[in-house]
Amino acid sequence: MIWDKEKECIDREDLKQLQLERLQSTIQRVYRNVPFYRRMFDRQGIDPDSFSSIEDIKKIPFTTKNDLRENYPYGLFAVPLREIVRIHTSSGTTVMPIVFGYTKGDLKIWSELVARVLSAGGITKDDVIKIAFNYGLFTGAFGFHYGAEKIGASVIPISIENPKKQIKIMQDYKTTALISTPSYALLIANTILEMDINPNSLSLKFGLFGAEPWSERMRKEIEEKLKITATDNYGLSEVMGPGVSGESLEKNGLHINEDHFLFEILDPHTLEPLEEGQTGELVITTLTKEAFPVLRFRTGDLTRFLPGQCPCGRTLRRIDRIMGRTDDMIIIRGLKIFPSQIEAILYEIEGKQPNYQIILERQSGIDSITILLEVTEDIFSDVMKEQSQLINIIKDRLSSEFGLSFNVKLAEKRSLEKIDGKLKKVIDRRN
After folding, report:
1. Domain end marker among 304, 326, 348
2. Within this chain, do residues 73 and 201 fall inside the same structural domain, yes or no?
3. Quick one: 17 and 70 in the same domain?
4. E-state strands within 210-309
5. Domain count across the chain
6. Residue 57 contacts residue 262 (beta carbons within 8 Å)
7. Per-residue confidence band for 1, with pLDDT thresholds at 50, 70 and 90
8. Overall pTM > 0.90
9. Angle 383-384-386 (CA atoms, 0-180°, nearest 5)?
10. What is the rounded average pLDDT of the residues 166-189?
11. CA 185 to CA 417: how far, in whole Å?
């Protein structure tokens, strides 16, 4: 499969009409078949026949993750269970999981949309793709698997294995593309260096990474260490999985599959639309999902629409890489700071991906912010003077960037506080 120019270079007016027709069809379907949405419409006095333009979507209340959990397991399915051919779920380790259903039609569209993302990232039928996502109830591995097969590429479903085994397979099977999280790709890259393997001896050409936020600096480090072209992609299980959007080889924003999803970017506090270029919360409505359609789903992810057209020729709109989440945003002394901004500065100073935690506290009515930076062999020193110099450099850089005083402390390896076994970037103790 090659780039489907006809579908990805659609005229804006034609696209708007297609979106409206598909939105009207989706609204009718959920009103008839999903009690949750029927109650929502009736409560708000919304007539499902009253949608005559895309702008009318503003009449519909938002759908949240909590709504999805409260309808566990099949309460939001819009088709009978006998038409469901695939079921995936969220992790549900600490709360009720969310169950996602797919019809045969959903799987066909899913494969096609992931194939678009893969094609944009350089993948062709001649590639040998290693998928290093966990093959389980999550959507990531299966979405990329069937998208790659749709293209006609060879797929190695290795899942999450020991990095050394991953590298052995790369060498022996002449893998040309790696699909994983960016952090896992960096782990593989560092293991290659530790094993004293020349990355130029591998057949790798492309890396398609997603499922977690990552910075431009991290992209550059991965590309330099693996000698590949790395592109970003974005998807979420609540609306489909991977295939929602992805970068082309121009690497200047993620093209949205607008013929299947309606995107809004809203102020996370007022929930009003933002101008192009302004960062806000991404809200998504599915336009073609049969089994599990969602209306105005609040993703909690922060991004912005990018202006202009991509040099690659695709006319589908672009969003910026995900900056963080609404619940990660730090507001301190009137300033709004995202952890990704702090991470970029730590990366700049340390020269590699930092492991850190941000602690917010309040004493005598004054808010303070402390950065706990986990030491590595590169920065650890028994000489207090050298540690003090590092701390002062970080403090000065952060203060210069944000106009705010920061406390910085070095923490021993694996000592950072975890919640439910996971490292939480921001811990707010001000309550």
Report:
1. 326
2. yes
3. yes
4. 229-236, 241-247, 254-256, 261-266, 280-286, 297-303, 305-306
5. 2
6. yes
7. very low
8. no
9. 70
10. 93
11. 25
Mean model confidence pLDDT for the chain: 90
Beta carbons of 209 and 231 less than 8 angstroms apart: yes
List beta partners, residue 368. Answer: 361
> Quick one: 371 and 408 in the same domain?
yes
Show Cβ contacts of residue 136 under 8 Å, excluding neighbours closer than 6 positions. Answer: none
Q: How confident is the model at residue 129 (pLDDT cuts 50, 70, 90)?
A: very high
Structure token pair of residue 355: 């492991």
- Distant-in-sequence contacts of 194-199, Cβ < 8 A, 24+ apart: 195/164, 195/167, 197/167, 197/171, 199/225, 199/226, 199/227
Residues spanned by the domain of 392:
329-428
By CB atoms closer than 10 A (0-12, 13-18, 19+), residue 276 is exposed
Asked whether the predicted pLDDT for residue 248 surpasses 90, the reply is yes
Residues 97 and 39 reside in one and the same domain: yes
Residue in 368, 344, 352, 366 with CA at minimum distance from that of residue 427: 368
Q: Hey, what long-range contacts does 347-355 have (CB within 8 A, 24 or more apart)?
A: 347/215, 347/217, 347/218, 348/217, 348/397, 349/390, 349/393, 349/394, 349/397, 350/376, 350/378, 350/379, 351/378, 352/221, 352/376, 352/378, 353/183, 353/186, 353/218, 353/221, 355/416, 355/423
DSSP strand pairing (99-102 vs 154-156): unpaired
Q: Mind listing the pLDDT tens digit for each residue in 80-103?
A: 999 999 999 986 443 578 999 999
387 and 320 within one domain: no
Strands 356-363 vs 366-374: parallel, antiparallel or unpaired: antiparallel
Q: What is the mean pLDDT of residues 257-279?
A: 96
pLDDT tens, position by position, 351-379? 777 889 999 997 766 789 999 998 765 55
Pair 294, 368 in one domain: no
Q: Which residue has the higher pLDDT, 15 or 415?
A: 15
The pLDDT of residue 424 is above 90: no
Residue 337: Cβ within 10 Å count = 20
Q: Which of 294, 326, 358 is the last residue of a domain?
A: 326
- SS3 helix, strand, coil % of the chain, rounded to 5? 35, 25, 40
Between 383 and 229, where is the model more confident? 229
Tokens coding 118: 């893969």
